[in-house]
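Notes to self after the call with IL:
- keep both proteins in one doc
- input above output, always
- annotate only the second one for now

Protein 1:
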Amino acid sequence: MAVDPRQLEKCALETDIRALLGLDRDEDEYGAQVGEVASLSRWYRGFGLLCVGALTHLQESGPPAREAQCYLLLLLGSILFVDKSKDRVSAVVNLFVKRPDMLGEYAWGAGALAYLYRELGIASRAEAKGVAGCLTLLQCWIYDHFPTLRPSRLEPRELEQGQAGAFRWRGTAPRSSKKRDAQMLAYYRQAIDSLTPQSVCWTPYGQSPHLTVRRTLYQDLLRFAEIVEPYDPTRCLRQLGYVQSVSYPPKRPLVVRRPASTLGYSLSYQSVYDSWWNNLGAHSVHLDLYSTPIRCRPWEFAEDYMGLYIRHSHRY
């Protein structure tokens, strides 16, 4: 059964980063009442829900369910699904907080990953001047995998029970200035150019993280609302403790538009079916058939891999 493109897939979830697939349209869940639309219109000004409207509503006495909805709008819009509107939250987020009893069944981690993938694609355009998405996820991923790129003042902290891994990197942000920003840009460019295989932490989450989170091996499409992005763990096998080999050709979009400008950037993939998610065995990587465990160096790769990598990563 085809998935409604306006919906976030609903699944039985156990961990944070996992794929999104399959949820039939539910009119009771997504059908807005006249009063609700009128309430939302107070916040909407053409580009999304004004955060100040949600904050004002939180300060007012009202039904607990609506207060929870306002809080979740701010939480999701300012952390997981951040855009470049500064003071607004995408109206699509409201569709996913209308039923508090359903929140535990949404794959928020996978949705944030799909959203971030799309925003990184947009940020790669020649005229891009910024990046959106869950940058906390991206920043902490960089700190975990590239120790030499961590700020010298920032040391990992011990996590308390139940805390998210991002808490290891809590620190005070330095003051920004044009001169300092230019210096930091030059510094990080040099640091990236100086990276070696030995300076990368290939498996910061353990030698076999896929044994703990089976959804790590899922291989197909991730989705958040109308955003659909491919997810392929065979392109980062060394992070799973396996020798990097040549992966299959990536899943190609049916329609693609990647102009130099960030405006008009769009990708369209084939329809997503809930059976893909439900049948994890048919839509996941079987590592032992695909590659071999790393025996010596954590950056090991197959003989034919590096030639292919150079051809695709150094075209000019």
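Protein 2 (the one to annotate):
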Amino acid sequence: MAALTTSGLAVSTASFAATVTTTGSDIGPVDSAPVTQAAMFGAGAGAGAAPAAERAPDSLAAALADPIPDFTTTTIEAEKSAIAPNAEARFTIHVRDATTGAPVAGENVNVVVVAGTRWSRSATLRTDDEGMARIGARLLSTTTVTAVFDGGASLRPSVAAAATVTVTSPTPTRPTGVAAIPGSTIGAKAVYLASLQRGKPYVWGATGPYAFDCSGFSQYVYKQLGRYLPRTAQQQFEATLRVPQSAKQPGDLLFFGSPDNITHMAIYAGNGYMWAAPQTGDVVKLEPIYTSTYWVGRVL
């Protein structure tokens, strides 16, 4: 275990539903530059490059100096297939020579979050002497990841079969009521970190650190505290613990719209105020809660 390469994974999870944009909303496609399999392998790069046949060596010496790259295999395995919300998911990656089974050591391998046809590179690890690398992350929603080895001068690239970790919420057995709801242990820190972003512009689809939309703002703040929220306001509503308005605490997330159509969100600051990235043309600021119709979500 000590020899394994270990890292932390910042996960933007699951679905990216395309819907109509509304003022102050961040619903819609959020990954403006998805990493595709072709892009990760460098397909299409160098439009003027000569085809393989034109680059073929014309002498035995040249052929020996330019051997055919070896095939490789890459695998990624999840330690557990199902976890509770905010529990740590751990993944182990292996890269091997496909012919000999020998480990591919000291090479970079990319960890990629898969959401439908979108591939988003999340981390780059380096394999150890056994061709292994490990990574862990706390997940709030079901997440699918894969591993991509880019290859090299003597090694062909390869892609692992995707691994999915399902986040399941146990059926509550405790009585429903304010006293039964766990308090936030990091809410005050979240409010402080939110205040540091004051004055930064609202940009739809932005996740920081120089601009934000409403859910990108909350995702960025809680990421600094080791909590990885999903990307959109609707997903964050579904991933957080429901709290009555009367029991809200600083750091809780406020959701506006309706439970099946969240159009805006903010971070509760206390005393009836919230930190928000409101809408295009505005900036991150402290403002009063402007309506009595909202829902409260707590990040534990």
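Annotation: The radius of gyration is 23 Å. The chain has a mean pLDDT of 79.
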